Amino acid sequence: QVQLVESGGGLVQAGDSLRLSCAASGRTLSMYAVNWFRQAPGKEREFVAVISGSGDSTYYSDSVKGRFTISRDNAKNTVFLQMNSLKPEDTAVYCCAADPPSDSPDVRSWGQGTQVTVSS
Predict the structure, then answer these.
(1) Strands (E), 9-63
(2) Most buried by CB count within 10 Å: which residue of 11, 17, 80, 82?
(3) Are strands 46-51 and 33-39 parallel, antiparallel or unpaired?
(4) How far apart are CA 120 and CA 3, in angstroms?
(5) What average pLDDT is seen over the chain?
(6) What is the predicted pLDDT for the residue at 28?
(7) How far from 113 is each of 8, 12, 33, 97, CA to CA, in Å?
(8) Measuring CA to CA, how many Å separate 18 from each of 50, 88, 99, 107, 119?
(9) Distance (Å, rounded) from C-alpha 104 to C-alpha 102?
(10) Low-confidence winner among 7-11, 64-68, 93-97, 99-103 (lowest mean pLDDT)
């Protein structure tokens, strides 16, 4: 099972940028599609973005499209989420989740999350 650790969260003002990192260990991350999710207080967990193992394919939720960019550095076993033009409604705990290849017995792995707070 792959282990994931997020970092890069913090308190910023509206309009600022942050870059989150999701560092993996225990497996070669290039085998995994990696997602970012977020959960705000009192709300359900929300999908944010996903990137394929090779990095060739990405997909974003409508709420972040055009502002957030997901990328990966497989040599560093790390996936990033660049967040620009942040809004107060982006405030949430952000978690990454790695989906194993279809022929793997592993299940989706989750990190512990990193807090992002955007003040108005």
Answers:
(1) 10-13, 18-25, 33-39, 46-51, 58-60
(2) 80
(3) antiparallel
(4) 34
(5) 96
(6) 85
(7) 10, 17, 18, 10
(8) 18, 13, 24, 29, 13
(9) 6
(10) 99-103
Distance CA 19, CA 38 (A): 14
Q: Are 80 and 70 in contact (CB under 8 A)?
A: yes
Buried b (16+ CB within 10 A) or exposed e, 51-72: bebeeeeeebeeebeeebbbeb
Cα 53 to Cα 32: distance, rounded to the nearest angstrom? 5
* Token reading at 36: 């970012």
Q: State the DSSP code for 56.
A: S
**Span 3-37, pLDDT tens digits:** 999 999 999 999 999 999 999 998 888 999 999 99
- Please choose, from the candidates 35, 55, 53, the residue with its C-alpha nearest in 3D space to the C-alpha of residue 45: 35
CB-based contact 19:80 (threshold 8 Å): yes
pLDDT at 62: 98
Cα distances (angstroms) measured from residue 48 to each of 25, 58, 91? 22, 11, 13
